[in-house]
Amino acid sequence: MGTADDVVASLKQDFIEDTMDRIDRIETTIDRVAGGMDEAGPGIAELRREAHTVKGLAGSFGFPLVGAIAHRLEDYIADLSEINDLEAASLVDFTSWIREIIESGANPAADEETRVLRSLPTRSVKADDEGTKDNDAAATANDKEILLVTATAVQAHFLQRELREKGFRTITARNAVEAFETVVQSHPDAIITAAVLDGLSGIELIRALAAMKTLADKKLGLLTSFDANHPDMEGLPSNVAIINNRGKQTSEHLAKFIETMM
Questions:
Q1: What is the pTM of this model?
Q2: Mean pLDDT over residues 51-57, rounded?
């Protein structure tokens, strides 16, 4: 019987081989859908499943950056309905990085993690929308990334759409644990969290983030339907912007938050 280290090494090797197989399948699916050999709907659904599996396993085997890239791949394809040649090339950027890191056998250093994540493709500025934007402002915003923390898919979609229309990169997290991991890896330029999250609330999360020295110069927003005098809002840090989650006010408050980022 092998030692514990032998068992761990064996499991890690199994993960590496399994992930390489998954990347092969992902790239084959991308090629087939882009080439019109397979239908887009089922093919994209398969990409989501494979990316989700890689995201869930990577951190346990010493590859947190692979998990973060797979997470961003999930976000990238969330609204994808077809894969043309341009989208195919962007998708392969994600898989190429995963393949390179897995083949190296080790996770890169922290500063390299941030560089890799910021180099990944983003759906923030689309060519067919350029006529409706100020291109200079969009180009400036495109250098900035906003972390969105919400457990609600509809809310995440709304926030992503509003921010991407202004040219911002976005990354999502569903709970406080994912949010802290993303902050450490990606160093986002701003964070917006919903007040209601599973586990630690968004209000407690934003208090913790506001207290971090590394985020002292970052924009923080709290999306909530609570009134300012609600007991849970008492003592909220002054550097946290309130984004009211009530009808038209949401867009108005979000627009003001975005203005501070331009």
A1: 0.81
A2: 95
